Amino acid sequence: MTALELAGRLHKREMRVLDALSEAQKKTQALNPSVNAVTEWEETETLRAAEQAQKRIDEGKPLSPLDGVPIGVKDLICIKDRRTSCASRMLADYVSPYDATAAAHLKAAGLLLPARCNMDEFAMGSTTETSVYGPTRNPWDLTRSPGGSSGGSAAAVAAGMLPAAIGSDTGGSIRQPAAYCAVTGMKPSYGAVSRYGLVAYASSLDQIGPFGGDAADCAALLDILAGPDGRDATCSGLPAPCFPALSGDVRGIRIGLPREYFGEGLDEEVRARILEAADIFRELGADVEECSLEGLDLAIPAYYVLACAEASSNLSRYDGLKYGYRAEDAETPDSLYRRSRTEGFGREVRRRILLGSFVLSAGYYDAYYKKAKAARALIRRGFDAAFRTFDLLLCPVAPSTAPRLGESLQDPLKMYLSDIYTVSVNLAGLPGLSLPCGLDGQDLPVGMQLIGPRFRDELVLRAGDAFQKHTRFHLNKPEVKRA
Amino acid sequence: MEFEFGREDLKRLQELSRLDIPEGEEEQTLTELRRILAFMERLSAVKDADEEGSMPVGALRADEPAPAFDREALMRNAKRKKDGAYLAPQTVE
Amino acid sequence: MTAYEAAIGLEVHIELNTRTKIFCGCSTAFGGEPNTHCCPVCSGLPGALPRLNRAVVEKAVLAGLALGCDIRRHNVFDRKNYFYPDLPKAYQISQLYLPICEGGGLLLSSGRFVRIREIHMEEDAGKLVHDPWTESTLCDYNRCGVPLIEIVTQPDLKCADEVTEFLQTLKTRLEFAGVTDGKMQEGSLRADLNISLRPVGSSTLGTRTEMKNMNSFKAIHKAVEVETQRQAEILNGGGRVLQETRRWDGNKDASFAMRSKENAQDYRYFPEPDLPPVDIDDTWMQELKDALPEMPDVKRERYLSELRLPERDVNILCQSAPLCRLLERCVDLGVQPRSAANWLLSEVLKLLNERGLEPADLALPAESLCRVIQLVEGGKIGRADGRNALQAAFDGQTNVDEYVARNGLLREEAGEADLEAAVRQVLAENADAVASFRAGKQKSFGFLTGQCLKALKGRADPKRVSELLRRMLEQ
Question: Which of C46, C48, C276 is opposite residue A234, by nearest beta carbon?
Fold first, then answer.
C-alpha cells in the first residue's frame, strides 16, 4: 500500500490509525533483524500523536492528505527531544532540543514519526555500510547493500515496514537507494525544502526529500516538506504545489537522453531497462530523443572537492565540548578535539574531512576549490543548454544494480565513481526523481532518473506519475527472507 | 606519475582537521588520498569561470529579538558543564 | 646609529549596537548569566543555519559613510576556519574577499591622513574564563554572534599619540553615526596593534609584531610606546625583530611573545555557502545616505553659528554623541540652548563622573532634564533643589513634578507686599550700595538684588525681584 492509499483508508475510516501504526511496528519488528533499516522506534509520543490524528479524522478535519500515516525519518534530520545520531558514535546519544523545519512541517501535517532510519555516517557513503548501527541489507537480496546514504529509508519502504520515509540527498543519497531497492525517491530542487535542522554534510548540495510507494506519494510528501523558511537563507520553497499537477499526461513533453550518460561503464541490463522505459514514454506521447550534456567527466571530481571542502568545515564543530562524544582525560583543548574527533568519527568521515582540508588549504585552493567551482558552473550551463530544447532528461541512476555488502569500502575511489549519474544533478541544484523500471538478469531492481529544470519539480513528478499509471514496475515488492 | 602527497602533507592535514590517523592505517590512508587527489587533477583543465548567482536571495532578517532559548535544553547534551558554562580543559595563553 | 620611524597599522573591532546578533535573533545585551543569550545557531548545534540581520548591513554601511569609504554593493561572506573553545562552529563567518567598505580614512590634528584599507562585517566569539577550582576553562557563548565591524587601517600611524587620537576620533564618529555605543568596559571597541620600524626615509616596511584585543586607550598608548622602544633597541643592537604575536601585560607595562603556533594558522577561507550574497541596490543606498546622522564636525559648526553656544562648550559637547542628542532634544522641547548646555556640562557630566559612568550610560530622559531647567529658570524651585531633583531623575525618579511635590520644593511665592517690604528693608540697610548704584556702578545693583533674594529666602522669582528693585531705586 502506498502512503496515499493508506491515508485514503484511514480518512475513509476503513482502518484506524492505531492499527496502521501497530501493523507497521509489527512488520518492522519481524523484518528489521534481517534488514536493519530502522534503528529506533519511538512509542510514547507516537501513540499520543496517533490518538490525536484519529480524533481529527473522526471529526472530518485531517491536517493534510497524509494525516495519521506513520513514516520513517533519516537519522540526521533533527526531531525535538529525539535522538539524532547521524549513525555516528560522535552523536550516538545526542538528543536535539529543536525540530528541523522539515520535521515541524511533517508534524503539522499530522504524520507520525515513530521510526529512525539507518544511514551512512553523516551521510557520507553510497552503501549504508559506515553506520555505527551496522549495515542495512537490501530487502531484495540480504547479501547486498540497499545503497546509501539513505539506505535505511529506502529499505524500510521496500520491505513494507513503512509506507514512506524521508531521506536526504547530497550526491545521490535518495535516488540511488531508491533505484537499488525499487522504491520511488525524489531529490527536490535545491532551495525547495528548508535545511534548517538537517545536520549539514555539504551545504550547497544537501536537500531533504521523500521516499514513497510511487511518485504520487513523493509529490504529496514534497508539498508538505517544501516551503520558504525564515531560518534558511538558501530556501525559497517551490513556486507551485506538485500533487495537484499530477495530470497523468505527458503528451508533447520533450525528453532528452544525454548520450554521455549511456556511455562506457554502464551495465548492459541497466541500459536496456532505461531504453525500454524511454520507449514507454514514447508510447505515452512524449518526444524522446538523444541529446548531449556537457561536463559529465568533471562531475565526480567537482562534487567531491566541493562536498568534502564544505563537509570539512561543517564537521569542525564536533569537538566533544558542547555535545556529542567526548574523549576522557584530555589535558588541553587541542587534545580534547583530536581525541574526540578521531574516536568519534568513522573512517570514511575522517577521510573526507582530510580531503576537504586539503583542497581548501593554502596553496591548493586555486587548483582544487576554485577549479571545482568553475566546473560546477560549466555543468550548470550544460543543463541550461539542454533544457532549452528539452523539458526533461531521462538517464540511469547508477552504473549497476545493488553491490554486495563489503565490496565497496575496499576501493573508495571506485565507490565515488559510482555516483557518476547523480552528482551532477546536485551540482546544478536540479530536481531528480528515481523510479523503478524493471529488474536485471539477477532479479535486482533497476531505477531510472528523471531530471528537470530548477524548480520544475512538479513536471518531473508528473512525468514519473504518468509512467507509473501505465506500468507496474513500482508495484514489485521483494520477499524478505527473515533472519 | 604519482601524485605528490607525503607523510608531511598528511601530518599537516591532521593538524588542520584536528584528526589523528589510528595506528597502522597511515600507509593505507596515504595511498587512498593519493589516488583520489590524482583523480581530481582532471579539474586543472577547466577554465576559470565567474560564479553565477544561483542561490535565491532570501530577504534579510529584521532586527527583532526572538524568544530566549532555554539554556537547560540548549546545553543538555554537554558532557561537562559548570555554572551554566561549557567546561573545556585549560587553554594555554 | 640609524634613526627609525614607526609604521603602525590597526585592526579595530567595533561592536555594532543592534538589538539582536548578526546571524540569529538572540539578544546582544552585555553580561547576563552564561549561555542565556544563546540558541542553536550561535551555539553551533548540529543542523543550525545563519540568517543575516539587516540592521548589521545598514550600520556597517553607515560606518563606512561616516569614515569616507566606498561602499561595496555586492557583498559575500566567507568562513574563517580554526579551532578554539570560544568559537562554537570552529569557523567564524567573516568577509575576506569582498568586504563591505574600502578606502576612506581620518584626518589627524597633525594634518596626517590615516587611510583605511577596508571594513568588513563579522561575528564575535564567546568569552573564556579560567576556573581555578577545576583547572579548566569556562566557555560562555553569550557574545558569540554579536555583530562586529573590523576596520583595517594602512600602517600610516607613527606614534602612540597618533594612535590614541585616531581611535578616539574613530570612536566618536561612529557613535555619532549611531552604530556603536562606545562602551569600552563592555568591549565595544578592541584594537589589534601592528607595529614595525623602518629607517627614516625608507619605503619598505620592517618586520611587524602584533598585539591583540587591546581595549583601553591608556594601555594602547603605553603598549605602542614600549613596543616601538623595544624594537628600536633590537635594531640598534644589530638584531632582527621577530614576526610574532605578543601579549601586553598592563601590570608590568611590558609585552611577552606568545607561542609561535599562533602565527602558523591556515584559515582555509571559502565563501559561506549558507548565506546568499547581499546586494545593496540604489534605493537602499540612497536611504542609507539620507539616514546618516549629522557628523561631529558639522554639528560643531551648527552649534556655534545657529545655537550660538560658546566654543569651549561646543568642543566638549561634540565629543559625545549622547550629550549632543540630549542637548538637541532639550532644545526641541523649548529649552534655551545655553541653559541646556550649561546644565549638561556642569550638572549632568558631574553626576556621570561621580558614578564612574560614561555618557553612553546616560539613561536620563530629556523630558526630565528639561523640566528641572524650566522649574529652576522659572523661579519655581531653587537651583540647589533643582540639582537634587536632577540627581533623583538621573537615578530613576524621572517624574520631576512628583519628586518636587513629594519633597515640598516648590517655592512659596512671596506676596507683593512681602516683596516690597523686603526690598525696602534692604535699601534702608545698604545706603552706600544705593549711593554707588546711583553714581553709576552697575555692580551694586547685582549686590542689592542678591541681598533681596537672601532676605526673601529664595521665595521669590529673581526676575520679579530685580524689576521691583529697579522701580524702587528709580523712585
Answer: C276
Domain contains A378: no
Return the amino acid letter for A179.
A
**Domain count of chain A?**
1
CB distance B77–A323 less than 8 Å? Answer: yes
Question: A74 catalytic, yes or no?
Answer: yes
- Does C400 share its domain with C420? no
In degrees and rounded to multiples of 5, residue A57 shows phi and psi of -65, -40
User: Do C68 and C203 have their domain in common?
Assistant: yes
Residue numbers of the domain that contains A231: 3-256+388-475
- Write down the pLDDT at residue C195: 96
Name A305's Cβ contacts closer than 8 Å, sequence gap at least 6: A359, A368, A369, A371, A372, B40, B43
pLDDT digits (tens, 9 = 90+) for C356-373: 888 888 889 999 999 999
The answer to whether residues A180 and A147 touch, using CB atoms and an 8 Å cutoff, is yes
Q: Are C308 and C177 members of one domain?
A: no
- Residues C110 and C182 placed together within one structural domain of the fold: yes
Interface of C with B in 216-255 (CB under 8 A): 247
A70-74 and A165-169 beta bridge pairing: parallel
Choose, from A88, A145, A149, A340, the residue flagged as catalytic.
Answer: A149
Q: Is residue A422 part of a domain?
A: yes
Q: Which of these is catalytic: A88, A145, A150, A173?
A: A173
Tell me which amino acid residue A414 is. K
Residue of A nearest to C85 (CA): A333
CATH number at residue A215: 3.90.1300.10
Q: Domain holding C451: CATH number? A: 1.10.10.410
Least confident range from A112-116, A476-480, C188-192: namely: A476-480
Other Cβ atoms less than 10 A from the Cβ of C33: the count is 12
- Average pLDDT rounded to a whole number, residues B38-42: 90
- Cβ distance B63 to C247 less than 8 Å, yes or no, reads no
Q: What one-letter code names the amino acid at C426?
A: V
Tell me the CA distances in angstroms from C445 to A207, C471, C475, one per residue in order: 88, 12, 15
Q: Residue C284: inside a domain, yes or no? A: no
Of A345, A374, A412, the CB nearest to B36: A412
pLDDT of residue C1: 66
Q: Is C175 left (phi over 0), alpha (psi -120 to 50) or beta?
A: alpha
- Residue C285 covered by a domain: no
Report the gap between the CA of A381 and the closest CA in chain B (Å). 10
Residues of chain A contacting B76 with CB distance shorter than 8 Å: 95, 97
Residue finishing a domain among C406, C438, C458: C406
ipTM comes to 0.96
Q: Does A315 reside within a domain? A: no
* Minimum distance, in Å, between the CA of residue A340 and any CA atom of chain B: 9
Summarize pLDDT for A362-401 with one digit per residue, the tens: 989 999 999 999 999 999 999 999 999 999 999 999 999 9
**What pLDDT is recorded for position A71?**
98
Structural domain total, chain C: 3
Torsions phi, psi for C435 (to 5 deg)? -60, -45
Q: How many CB atoms lie within 10 A of CB C397?
A: 14
- Whether C114 maps to a domain, the answer reads yes
Q: How far is B60 from chain A (nearest CA, A)?
A: 8
CB C28 within 8 A of CB C147: yes
Given a contact as 3+ CB pairs under 8 Å, which chains touch C? A, B
Angle between helices C416-429 and C443-455 (to 10 degrees): 130
Question: C463 and C321: one domain?
Answer: no
- C-alpha dist (Å) from residue C135 to A190, B90, C182: 47, 6, 34
Q: CA of A35 to nearest chain C CA: how many angstroms apart?
A: 28
| Chain B contacts in chain A segment 110-149 (CB below 8 A) | none
Q: Are residues C247 and C201 in the same domain?
A: yes
Q: Is residue C118 part of a domain?
A: yes
> Residue C433 is part of which domain span?
416-474
